[in-house]
Structures are given as C-alpha cells and as structure tokens.
C-alpha cells in the first residue's frame, strides 16, 4: 500500500492519483509489489530541517528517503520507508527543466523509491547504475 500526505498549502499542485500511480508502477518495475511506503509532500522549511538533522546539510533538498525495511506483522508486507518531497523544489525543478510539475513528481518519486530499495548514486563509482535505471523506469511509466 502506498500512503501519502500532502501539506494543505500544496494540495492544488499535486495530483495524488498520479502520485499513487507513479509509486505503484515503480514498485511493479522493481518487482516489489508486496511493499508499502509513504510519500509526503512538504515545504522547503520542513525538508531543510530533516536534511539538517539526518544528513547534517543545512539546506533544502528536493527529495529525502528514509529506509525502514521492516515487515508489518499484521499484513506481512514489507515496509520500505518514507519519501519526503519538497513542493517548492518540485516546482522550481520542473520550471528549470521545462516540463510539468507532474513529470517532476514522477522523477522524484522514482528517485526516492530507488533510494528506499538500496540504490545510492552518491556512492556509485565507475559504471553508474541508479540514474540509468531511474531513466528506464520513468520512460516505462510514461510509455505504458
């Protein structure tokens, strides 16, 4: 199950049906259909506080992933973790890239899910894996 929470001030920016669809299709692509996660659309201020607390970087970022990777004893589903997305960064990056907020939302969700699934582009050396995989998943989502 994909849980989501969108801060009230950003509810008109985000299509939650698309949010659910992007996350679900990413999990299907990764063959992780029995996994649960939560996606939160928040503010720059909130994500900056989380970034400062957990990564020791005092600046907002576009997306943070918090891996839990535990089994829910009631449902027996694997809970991957939480993805936090900055709505302001979402809009800013969509504008900079010249595409819709919706497409940027897809990019950030796929990116966040890949981090929950154990991929880390910052730790990759040599032949990168995460970013090409991210591109393949996004292409699959928009061509399906």
TrEMBL record:
One of its GO terms (molecular function) is metalloendopeptidase activity. Its main location: cytoplasm. Its EC number is 3.1.-.-. It is found in: Cytoplasm. Binds 1 zinc ion. Its cofactor is Zn(2+). GO terms for cellular component: cytoplasm. Keywords: Cytoplasm, Endonuclease, Hydrolase, Metal-binding, Nuclease, Ribosome biogenesis, rRNA processing, Zinc. It comes from the Bacteria. GO terms for biological process: rRNA processing. InterPro entries: MetalPrtase_cat_dom_sf_prd, YbeY. Zn(2+) binds at residues 111, 115, 121. Single strand-specific metallo-endoribonuclease involved in late-stage 70S ribosome quality control and in maturation of the 3' terminus of the 16S rRNA. NCBIfam families: rRNA maturation RNase YbeY (TIGR00043). HAMAP family: Endoribonucl_YbeY. Belongs to the endoribonuclease YbeY family. This is Endoribonuclease YbeY. The lineage of its organism: Bacteria, Bacillati, Chloroflexota, Anaerolineae, Anaerolineales. The gene is ybeY.
């Amino acid at each position: 199950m994909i849980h989501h929470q969108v801060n009230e001030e950003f509810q008109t920016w985000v299509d939650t049906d698309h949010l659910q669809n992007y996350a679900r299709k990413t999990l299907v692509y990764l063959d992780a259909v029995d996994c649960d996660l939560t996606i939160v659309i928040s503010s720059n201020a909130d994500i900056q506080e989380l970034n400062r607390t957990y990564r020791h970087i005092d600046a907002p970022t576009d997306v943070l992933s918090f891996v839990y990777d535990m089994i829910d004893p009631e449902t027996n589903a694997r809970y991957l973790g939480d993805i936090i997305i900055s709505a302001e960064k979402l809009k800013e990056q969509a504008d900079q890239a010249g595409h819709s907020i919706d497409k940027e939302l897809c990019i950030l969700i796929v990116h966040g899910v890949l981090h929950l699934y154990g991929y880390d582009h910052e730790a990759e050396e040599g032949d990168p894996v995460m970013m090409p995989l991210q591109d393949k998943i996004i292409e699959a989502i928009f061509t399906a």
